[in-house]
Amino acid sequence: MPTLMISTCGTSLLTNYARGDGVLAETVRQSANTTSADATPQIERAITEALQQCRVKLSTSAVKDVRSASAELNGLLGFYNDQLAGANKDQHILLHTDTLQGERVAKALQGYLHGKKLTASTKLFSDLRTDTLENFQHGLTGVIKWCHETLPGYREKGYKVVFNLTGGFKSIQGWMQTLGMFYADEIIYIFESGKELLRIPRIPVALDKAVVEEIQNNLPFFRRLAIKLPCKTADIPGDISGAFLYKPGDKIELSAWGRLMWGPARATLYREKVHTSPDIRIVYSRRFRDACSTLTAEDQRWNVNERIDDLALYLASGRTNNPKRLDYKKLQGRGRGNSTHEIDAWPQSPAWRIFLHEDGDKVVLDDLAEGMH
Asked: Of 166, 186, 201, which residue sits at a domain end?
């Protein structure tokens, strides 16, 4: 079974190299949360030159010295028992912060893995840095969304998903350990500068019934937050726990915890039935409701709920955001009853469509039926 290893990246490669050089160590410390755009030429030059030396050192060092130089590689090499020759079918993704140091260190580690003929890529999440709570919240939300949308697909292809949390900042590691309970088959970790690998197998996690019920009882509101439709604090239903929400100013968003809970709850609820629209501009006709009630396949109900979310985003964008999977367009030819437009319901054969007509700023979903090509 091939492995997909997700490694959280910090700056240990750089900070370890800077020890003993007071000037460089101070530069590294002071610029820990500096982005590439904000870095002065002096800082960028110092970081670039230091990491160039790190790259040379990694390429010429014995395995034990490589493990001492980088926490991330310490965990990765420990997983493979210091033997990378048989890992060429595996894939590695290096998650890093939205900082100059985070980006450059991740690229240096990627270069080392490429030198060992391994498949490795880096993944940056905007705002994933610890200078402010708001930045960290936004960055973490991106990580959770990426895990939910990306990692199940690797599992379906037969990959074992491993989280290597030996490196990275502690604030990020804590959240990744929680995410690992939902999305990883195994979490690995090495304490400090040790060599012994701690392996934590996946522990099945089931959402508390009360959590699912709270989301279900306020589903249109949660859907609006999840697809990032505009919401204000005045829109919050009175029975929603504050732990689900993040409130920057007068706006309202799903908190990192709320988004983590939303993923598995959505997976359950969207397969149960076609739910009420998250946007009052989307109106269901009786014929459409009746057609939805006859759907027996969970994936069909899932797809219809997703297309309604896409349609809500399309309307919110001023009818400019029209993804291929939605394909909002006018009906060609003689039309179909009152319907003047159609969107895709699902692409699998036989492909079905949702037929609709426009009524001012609203759209009325008239029917759900097999489409004509």
From this structure: 201
160 and 289 housed in the same domain: no
- Residue pair 343/327 in contact by the 8 Å Cβ criterion: yes
State how many domains the chain has: 3
Residue 172 and residue 309 share a domain: no
Residue 227 in tokens:
């697809």
Q: Cα–Cα distance between 265 and 268 in angstroms, integer?
A: 5
Please state, in angstroms and rounded to a whole number, the distance separating the CA atoms of residues 64 and 68: 6
Residue at which a domain ends, from 145, 170, 201? 201
pLDDT per residue as tens digits for the range 270-284 = 999 999 999 999 999
Which pair of structure tokens corresponds to residue 63?
Answer: 């395995």
**Same-domain status, 191 and 293:** no
pLDDT recorded at residue 343: 95
Query: To which H or E segment does residue 53 belong?
Result: helix 41-60
What are the pLDDT digits (tens) for 196-240? Answer: 888 988 776 666 778 888 899 999 999 999 988 888 787 888 778
Convert the pLDDT of each residue in 97-121 to its tens digit: 888 999 999 999 999 999 999 999 9
Say whether 169 sits in a helix, a strand or coil: coil
Q: Are residues 268 and 305 in the same domain?
A: no
**Angle, CA of 366, 367 and 369, to the nearest 5°:** 160
Distance of CA 21 to the CA centre of its chain: 38
Identify whether the C-beta of residue 268 lies closer than 8 Å to the C-beta of residue 301.
no
Domain that holds residue 220: 206-272
